[in-house]
Design goal:
The chain is of the alpha+beta class. The chain is built from three helices and three strands.
Length: about 80
């Protein structure tokens, strides 16, 4: 739960990560997925989102499932 006095709520702070998925000869590969997701989670914590309803593992799973469901050879994931 995010406290209503949190600066993230009062001033509209947000977190953002741009993550690239590249097409390779073998498959599509996400560039440094672990590092991007950990930074995203850390940023959320810093701006006041302390008790997130998702874990880093759940975010990574969702990203991989979304990529698998699409037929784009490469993509840009914005979280």
């Amino acid at each position: 739960m995010v406290p209503f006095v949190s600066a993230a709520v009062q001033y509209g702070f947000s977190v953002f990560e741009g993550i690239r998925c590249y097409s390779t000869d073998m498959d599509r590969l996400v560039f440094r997925l672990n590092e991007h997701v950990e930074r995203l989670m850390d940023s959320a914590h810093i701006v006041g989102f302390r008790d997130l309803p998702v874990t880093a593992e759940l975010v990574k799973t969702a990203i991989n499932q979304t990529i698998a469901a699409k037929e784009f050879p490469s993509c840009y994931i914005v979280r």
